[in-house]
Amino acid sequence: MTSSVPFDGISMGCDYNPEQWPPSVWREDVTLMREAGVGFVTLGVFSWALLQPEPDRYDFGWFDEVLELLHEGGIAVDMATATAAPPPWLTTAHPEMLPVDAEGRTLWPGSRQSWCPSSPVFREHAVALVEQMARRYGSHPAVRLWHVSNELGCHIGKCWCDVSAAAFRRWLANRYGSIDVLNDAWGTAFWSQHYRSFEEVLPPRITPAVPNPTHELDFARFSSDELLDYYRVERDVLRRLSPDVPVTTNLMVSSHQSEQDYFSWAPELDLIAQDHYLDARLPHPHAEQSFTDDLTRGVAGGGSWLLMESATSAVNWQPFNVAKRPGELLLDSLRHVARGADGIGFFQWRASRAGGEKFHSALVPHAGRDSERFREVVGLGEALRRIGEVAGSPVEADVALLFDWNSWWACDLSSHPSAELRYVDAVHRWHRAVTELGVTADVVHPESDLSRYRLVIVPTLYLSSDATAASLDAYVRGGGQLLVTYFSGIVDESDHIRLGGYPGAFRELLGVRAEEFAPLLPGTTVTLDDGSTADRWTEVLTAPDAEVVARYTDGPLPGTPALTRRAVGDGVAWYLATRLDDAATAALADRLTRDAGVTRLAGAEPGVELVRRGRYLFVLNRGHEPVKVPAHGYDLLTGVNVEGTVDVQAGGAAVVREEGS
Ligand code: GLA
């Protein structure tokens, strides 16, 4: 990652799909984009079939016209390579490039993204198109960014076809060197799974009983690497033919898309770009957004990133597509900016008349320009223009929350002690608890440098490396405050249990030892002797070398330690062996952040989010009451001086350039 967001200030942008509209609409589009303050558009994502209508014929004329109109209108372009959805002539000629699921079913054309990431024939045709795009548009002054494919892994994060199987075997041979090493790593002595050669290995297709978990885990790793490899193939063409334009792709750092290890992708991208949609199926959709934004910033190494796509209102793909209420569009967009986004993009410019996404919101709704939604979009464009000076300012955080895709994949595999234990649930819970205290957390890889953080939280890091254990040990000895929660440090990178007692990797550092897990049945709770309530998980825990802070008073293990604390070197290591409810999680977060001397922004509470980006204080009030928050300076949104407190109405926001900072 080398580039900052290549658009001016905090730019507003959108996907633009002009092929869905007659040319007469294109001119009106550019006029309306200017009215709304659109600074960039993503062009060409799904244009392949019309850019290359036949195998040996390209038709760029209409696309040139659109590009010139945008350029004349002063709108910058994030140019897609147009390879996301192959045209029917290609899938008809080469059905062997279609993806196959774990049950052996082909995913047929008729939708989008029907291609196998390992398919050589798909790659060959995609590269030919990318070369055309790069030669034709690679030095056009409007083109500021290249956008490889689209949401790589969306719909087809894994493919189980025979071509993928061969690629998987090559990946395994490269990882393990010999089949004996693989047998050892996969524990194939179990259930007669011993392999004689790599040729006998298949992708983990459906099986009669529980599949080998390390096989599944390695297939997840391979699938992430294989898509990244595909990204590299396109990127290398772009770098060769259009060396001055940065290259990225839109990531999906969300709670439902766990198939790519974006920490390993980041070094290959010139800029981190992310798509995010609020998900009404989650218990705390806005908290999930904040978490995702902090994780995206972690993927970006702490720097700025680009929100490539989001929704002005409802999406079309949830069972109940909740529309944004007045003011929510601004608030949700500012939340992204507060947490490091230096540009706010949307899907899409004009709501489609036809196709599978015709009920997805857009900047211009079906109702047209004369609509509240478009007026809100214009207002958002103006607000982002006012806060443009924020771009590039670093988000300030002195808490780190450790996160790992490998651990997520491994933790959520089947045949574990509790089907209700879910990795992101644990991570979200702790992120939300600190956020509600006015604390900003960086969400970072477990092997990151932790030395600058006052508090490190490690929720349910089931799979942990020796390096992570050593790093946490050094962090605490050096004066850090650490919280590790249940079902952490259980296995190594091969998903083998760390023997001798749980939580294996962190047992010594924490001074505790669990001999057995005692998960709780759904709907049951336990009480701790400090009055806390918890559910889902308990452990037969002893604390040979730690102070017991709280014990269970009921449930399967009355009198057993639930929360422990150990002073180590200059620091302190806490262990929490159960899932506290929201109030108790908040109380423990309060104690830990106070003990650690973590910066807390005064005025934060559930529904009122405060974040500091450099000299700018963001106040986001999602609550139903006005709030007063201490601040001195100038509110960029209202243009009003702030002397002592800033008043923020219910559903409103302030972005204060603070004095003297
Ligand atoms: C993603 C995709 C878009 C569109 C939207 C719908 O952002 O990139 O093409 O499908 O989702 O929410």
TrEMBL record:
Residues 397-598 form the Beta-galactosidase trimerisation domain. It holds the Pfam family Glyco_hydro_42. Gene3D superfamilies: 3.40.50.880, Glycosidases, Golgi alpha-mannosidase II. Residues 15-386 form the Glycoside hydrolase family 42 N-terminal domain. One of its GO terms (molecular function) is beta-galactosidase activity. It catalyses: Hydrolysis of terminal non-reducing beta-D-galactose residues in beta-D-galactosides. The keyword Hydrolase applies. Its EC number is 3.2.1.23. Keywords: Glycosidase, Hydrolase. Residues 607-658 form the Beta-galactosidase C-terminal domain. Belongs to the glycosyl hydrolase 42 family. This is Beta-galactosidase.
